[in-house]
Write a structure and sequence with these properties.
four-stranded mixed β-sheet; alpha/beta; 330 residues; Peroxisomal Thiolase, Chain A, domain 1
């Protein structure tokens, strides 16, 4: 049985910046209020109405292929973690493979809100570990600006657009995905969801007028569960694998709120210099957050580094993964 190791990572964010000062002109908020409570200074927004979520993902996957020196036709499988698919169907993963010319790849979407990328990475690793597939791409991509109500100050300050991707390949070295722990609890649905658009409440003139096709979030309830869930599952995976804070090179946390990130690091006994952070630049890009972190911090990573990936998302979904990094940063 092989290990599944990340051999390349890439990301993409749109050019347009939406700053806190821009939001001050749109809703009743202030830069200080946003920064103090979330840690976010700005986020990237795709303003071209002709662009879809798959277009961001395509840019990340193209860069993966370029960095690894492979042709898209060499990709065996592609999973896309997203809550903002191009269409209800077909899967955005299928659209991505068509756009990049990955003619030999099959794949599908995984929808687990902000935990989607981590859940997809755990799934993909097992396809590689069996030896069945040799090149599997995992994409986390979300165009959250398309489902955010920019008159709702409780949600519009949080989210941004972005995509990231990793390439998984088999290795016989003691590297790659070592362990993961995932959880879900559908009782959390009422606190964070989109009210309309599915079979429970199909689209209609009324649902559009009532602005029910946007993210709905009960901030305090989500914050409370996220602080507990991310912190505890991260500590749990360390304990299960006899890892101490000294063993960990980096915490790679979902970028939803700086206070949640700080609480997770504290629970793990990690100092701030071991925590990857880019929330100040991109906000919460949902499925894109963790791969975007890996992409930005790639130059600092060393072969054999122990990374703990941690996440929490709507549903509720949450989890943590232990990875031994596969190469020296480039």
């Amino acid at each position: 049985m092989y290990n599944a190791v990340i051999t390349a990572v890439a990301g993409y964010v749109p050019e347009t910046r939406l700053t806190n000062f821009d939001l001050e002109k749109m809703v009743d908020t202030t830069n200080e209020w946003i920064l103090t409570r979330t840690g976010i200074q700005e986020r990237r927004i795709e303003t071209d109405p002709q662009k879809a979520n798959s277009d961001m993902a395509v840019e990340a996957v193209k860069l993966i292929c370029e960095k690894r020196g492979i042709h898209p036709s060499e990709i065996d499988m592609l999973l896309c973690a997203t809550v903002t698919p191009d269409y209800t169907f077909p899967a955005t993963a299928n659209i991505i493979t068509a756009k990049i010319g990955a003619n030999n790849a099959w794949g599908y979407d995984i929808e687990a809100a902000c935990s989607g990328f981590l859940f997809a990475l755990g799934t993909a690793a097992q396809f590689v570990q069996t030896g069945r597939y040799k090149k599997v791409v995992v994409v986390g991509s979300d165009m959250m600006s398309r489902i955010i109500d920019y008159t709702d100050r409780t949600t519009c300050i949080i989210f941004g657009d972005g995509a990231g991707a990793v390439l998984l390949e088999p290795t016989e070295e003691d590297l790659g995905v070592k362990d993961f722990i995932f959880y879900s609890d559908g009782n959390g649905c009422k606190h964070l969801h989109m009210k309309a658009g599915g079979s429970a409440l199909p689209p209609s003139i009324d649902t559009v007028i009532q602005r029910q096709h946007y993210v709905y979030q009960e901030g305090q309830a989500v914050f409370k569960q996220a602080i507990y869930g991310m912190a505890e599952v991260s500590a749990q995976i360390m304990e299960r694998n006899n890892l101490t804070s000294e063993d960990i090179a980096w915490l790679v946390p979902h970028q939803a709120n700086k206070r949640i990130i700080d609480a997770t690091a504290q629970r793990m006994g990690l100092s701030p210099d071991k925590v990857m952070i880019n929330i100040q630049k991109y906000g919460n890009t949902t499925g894109g957050t963790i791969p975007l972190l890996l992409w930005e911090y790639e130059p600092l990573l060393k072969k054999g580094d122990n990374l703990i990936l941690s996440t929490f998302g709507g549903g509720f979904t949450w989890g943590s993964m232990w990875i031994k990094w596969g190469y020296n940063g480039k």
